[in-house]
Amino acid sequence: MTPAVSLRDVTLHYFTPQRETLALSGITLDVAAGEFVALVGASGCGKSSLLSLVSGLMQPSAGVVTVEGRPVRKPSPRVGYMFQRDTLLEWRSILDNVLIGAELLGRDKAAMRIRAEALLRRYGLGDFLHSLPGQLSGGMRQRAALARTLCTEPDIVLLDEPFSALDFQTRLTLSDEIAAIMREEGKTAILVTHDIGEAVSMADRVIVMSPRPGRIKSEHRVAFPSFGNTRPTPFESRKCPEYAALFQTIWDEMTVDAPETVQ
Predict the structure, then answer these.
(1) N or C: which end of the chain has fewer CB within 10 A?
(2) Residue 68 Rama label (left phi>0; alpha psi -120 to 50; beta)
(3) DSSP string of 175-191, one letter each residue
(4) Helix, strand, coil percent values for the chain (each to nearest 5)
């Protein structure tokens, strides 16, 4: 079966007037349709750059990136991107913010408005359709950003540290919600995070990247057999022995590289 996302021997260089920087080197990775993959690694290892390549916002210096078997040349409506900051437009209502992508793609306005309102109600924002972003808490703003990402019905969702600006309790709540939404809707998801616990609790597979130039150092399948036949929520998974064991394994791998990244 054709992977939803595939990278083959991908290398990425950044160029400035002063120097050339090798950001990613020899990245080969397949993500299956419906799979939830998390990327972890030190700051500057190229995790977010990898998402930019998959989204079509950047092109690799070498190698091939494909989405659903087609080379990525430019951004596609099949790929949704949820950034670290919610980037909501402060002068537009929450509903109008969620509709931005649909407007840019020229989608049917009436149909997209129905979908946007349904998503916002599902995410607990039904009473805030006509509120401005400044009237919402951080967690509510991220829910609105997720609704905006999903409004155009992408097959693949890229999540670039979407919880990093939130308090711990809100992060746990949103990670539960987003993991459930991705699986219920059958989305393929790639999450970038510095939080090992977040990666282990949410993903089907965790990819550990080396410090720059970013390479794939290891891959870990996530399973919770002690929980039974169903997948625990991210919150529930943190109580499982498999969570603690995998967390420690990944922590040890990243700690080996840590002294090299300290300035």
Answers:
(1) C
(2) left
(3) HHHHHHHHHHTT-EEEE
(4) 40, 25, 35
Contact 29, 63 (CB under 8 A): no
Please state the φ and ψ torsions of residue 20, each to the nearest 5 degrees. Answer: -110, 135
Cα-based distances in Å from 151 to 7, 139, 169, 184: 27, 18, 26, 15
- What three-state secondary structure class fits 126? helix
For residues 75 and 54, give the distance between their C-alpha atoms in angstroms, rounded to a whole number. 9
∠ CA 126-150-124, rounded to 5°: 20
87: left (phi over 0), alpha (psi -120 to 50) or beta: left
- The amino acid at 190: I
Q: Distance between CA 185 and CA 191 in Å, rounded?
A: 16
Q: Which amino acid is at 233?
A: T
The tokens for 217 are 């150092």
**Which residues neighbour 110 within 8 Å (Cβ) at sequence distance 6 or greater?**
none
Tokens of 230: 């169903």
pLDDT of residue 258: 61
Could you tell me which residues come within 8 angstroms of residue 105 by beta carbon, excluding any fewer than 6 positions away? 77, 152
Which amino acid, 56? Answer: G
Pairing relationship of beta strands 216-221 and 79-82 according to DSSP bridges = unpaired
Mean pLDDT by 10 residues, the chain (263 residues): 94 85 94 96 90 94 95 92 88 94 85 93 92 92 91 93 82 87 92 94 95 92 90 92 96 75 38
